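Comment thread on ticket #2218

A.B. wrote:
> Attaching the input chain for the structure job we discussed in standup.
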Amino acid sequence: MTTEHADDARDDQEPQASRIALTWTGEPGRMEELTHGMLLDQADRAAAALKRLGVRAGDRVAVHLPLVPESVIATLACGRLDAIRTTLPVSLTVPELVARTRESDARVLITADAAFWDGAIRPVKAVLDHALARGGAADRGEGRTVLVVNRCARPVSWTPGRDRWWHEALDDA
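C.D. wrote:
> Ran it. Output below, let me know if you need it in another format.
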């Protein structure tokens, strides 16, 4: 590719980077918009964070998130690493989560502290914590990392050495 063609390609991409790629409306009064550039930047940072946590091609990353932008970012990050994104719906009960986390054999789990739905704040991480505790020694988080997305400012239980804030992991990238 000549320099002239490379410049033309860059000019075509730059306007796209500033266009809105994702609009999310959630809790009353809360809206987020991410441009293509922002979305790709966060996906790159998330991929770097997952890689630093040992995720490689073919590894599973379990995503236990409500419908929030971080769910899309996690999907893109897994794609960048050729990792397998496994969905753990937030509607699962503790026994269902025990089975799904055991089946997933995920090195990294991504969850939210809580989520707002049906007019109330509902626990998300607490349910996953219960499932990991009930899952037995293999599922208690040994050798696993739980990345926690802060969606609802509220106290959250924490397992030192296992749990990390999503935003801090991305900032480290």
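A.B. wrote:
> Thanks. Noting for the ticket: The CA atoms of residues 57 and 65 lie 22 Å apart.
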